[in-house]
Every structure is written in structure tokens, then in C-alpha cells.
Amino acid sequence: MTSTAPKAIRIIKTWDWGVRLFHWLLVAAIALAFLSSEEGSALSPWHGSAGWVAAILIAFRLLWGFVGGEHARFANLIRPSRMAGHVRGLFAGRVHASLGHNPLGGIAVIVLLALVAATTFTGITGGEGGHEAIAYILLAMIALHVVAVVAMSFLTRDNLIGAMITGSKKTTHFPRLRTHSQNSTVAARAMADRKTVGHRS
Asked: Which Pfam families match (predicted)?
């Protein structure tokens, strides 16, 4: 009787500390902003502060999009060449886990950042009518984002919410991907082989 040893499950660092800190602080700031939006409520004095925190976070994310980790950078969020194939795959029922944001997810991030920036700008400058309208569009986009995250987590068996908390994903979803430790081992073996060949020649 033969048995096949299970493949070792390794952890891949995906989201750096800047992305995760930004994400959850922005969630808290937006939640507080919406909960404090009613005048006369117990939380209403915090509405302006929540807006300023969101504005500072957006400024940080714009900077981090150029100096942060691989999957934090805007260059990896906007990938038009992969969009058509990704959308066709979704309609055909071919759903695959993505190490970072998938093409639609990257566009969603850009749209959400723009909406948060527009909401905070109109709130700070006093454009009440536009501020409220954009805020409700932002709320609808957030709801769509949450639904998409839950749906993709279920379809791909990849815990996207957990990954945004821990910053890591499992290699079981990316069998062709080598971890940093695996790459180091391969490189070390190749170097040892070259030295052996050199000694024999």
C-alpha cells in the first residue's frame, strides 16, 4: 500500500504593513464618518475629525503606491492588458486566486480611493450637496466591494479578508509560485553544483 505525502503548505507574504494599516484605519474612519453624519447625534462632533483622518490616509496611500511593496504599487493595480481575459474568465466560470489584486480588484481600489478623496474634499470645502451625493455613491461602492471580496473568497477558497489581516497567503492557491526560501534553496544548490563541476574540471 503506497501513500502520497501531502505537499508542504508555505506562507507567502502578500500585503505589507502599510497596505494593511491603511486599509483597516480607513475602514474605521469611514465607518465613524457615516455613523456621525447625522446632526445632533452623539457622534456628530467626530464627523469632521473622521474626514480629516481619511484625507491623511489617502495622502499616505498615494505615496505608498509608489514606495510600498510589490502589491501596494499602482503599477500592479492598473493592468489593462489582463482585464479582458479576466472578465472573460469570470463569465466562463474560470475563477482563479490572485496573489495581489486581480485586474477588476485593482480598478475597484482606484475608484474607491478617488471617491474617498472626493468625499473628504467636498466635506472640507463645504460643498454639502455634492458631499452627500458622493458619500452615498462611496457607500454603494463599498457594499459592492465587500460582496465581491466575499464572493471571490468563496469561489477561489482564498481567504481575502484573513490575508488583509495577516498579510499572508498560502502556497496551496499558487502551486507554480516559489517562495523566497525555495528560491534561495534552488540558488544555493545551483551554486554548489557549479563549484563541484569547477573542482572536477
From this structure: Ni_hydr_CYTB
